[in-house]
Amino acid sequence: MTPHNASDDSRDDSRWSDLDRPPLNAAALRRALVREGSLYREVEVVQRTGSTNSDLVARAVAGQADEGAVLVAEEQTAGKGRLDRQWTAPPRSGLFFSVLLRPAEVPVARWGWLPLLTGVAVASGVARAAGVDTALKWPNDLLVTVGGEERKAAGILAERAGEDGVVIGVGINVTLRADELPVPRAGSLALAGAVGTDRDPLLRAVLRALEDWYGRWRAAGGDPAACGLQETYAAGCATLGRVVRAELPGERALVGEAVAVDGDGRLVIATGEGVQEPVGAGDIVHLRPA
User: pTM of the prediction?
Assistant: First the structure.
């Protein structure tokens, strides 16, 4: 075997260049997920793209994708996080995928629960398939513990796709090593001591959990209390009970205790002045443990 040269573009053609990171088995994923009565209509795995979210939004708007379309990339070169942040990782080191949803029977006012619902599904799937304890940081970052510290191992981004669609994008750091982390506060399932880092069963577990929660939420007309979503989210949310700083639009900041997630999915912060203020968008910083 010739030595691997990082500058050699031939790496793009070798799916086995890193034996610790085998490629996903697209055919097996389709067999497991695309079946009669399932949410999932198609599962496509591409070697590389800029952003699975951008690709799937474009397809949805052009009428080229149905609800339940799943697009997975082995590598994203322009992956998007919340607040226009970049999400990058080495090829096959994580799961980078997007799902098209069209929740026609749910009022648009309740669609804001979709990223939180996806967070619950990701946490559930990761716990089941990787054996890692996780927590959710509001609104939808997945936290794991690495060396006694909370680290972000997954993020979720929801984007509207035309009038009737939402594309949910998920990025999960699976086998990233310490020297590959994009920022010091990032983590991965492997660094958190995962018992399994095989991405195929991990993706299946997350997508099945998403299908289950989405079905419950949709059947309840998007009511987060009626389907148990609000309670389940709160039970797994590491932000509640913490003193936090919310960095809000317009360069405003709010410091207080995160006391609840309300019926609209907003984080309710109790300030020192005794005011309870719901926050619907912004960056949340955990200032100290509960």
Answer: 0.91
CB 182 within 8 A of CB 89: yes
Q: What's the CA gap between 112 and 222, in Å, rounded?
A: 10
Residues whose CB falls within 8 Å of the CB of residue 251, separated by 6 or more in sequence, listed in order = none
Give the type of residue at 276.
Q
* Among 217, 168, 214, CA closest to 70: 168
183: closest CA among 207, 224, 155, 163? 155
Q: At what angle do helices 114-130 and 199-219 cross, to 10 degrees?
A: 140
- Please spell the DSSP secondary structure of the chain, one letter per residue: -PPP-TT-GGGGT-TTSSTTSPPP-HHHHHHHH--TT-S--EEEEES-BS-HHHHHHHHHHTT---TTEEEEES-BSSEE-GGG-EE---TTSEEEEEEEE--TTS-GGGGGGHHHHHHHHHHHHHHHHH----EEETTTEEEEEETTEEEEEEEEEEEEETTTEEEEEEEEE-S--GGG-SSTTB--TTTTT-S---HHHHHHHHHHHHHHHHHHHHHTTT-TTTTTHHHHHHHTBTTTTSEEEEEETTTEEEEEEEEEE-TTSPEEEEETTS-EEEE-SSEEEEEE--
pLDDT tens sequence across 42-79: 999 999 999 999 999 999 999 999 999 999 999 998 76
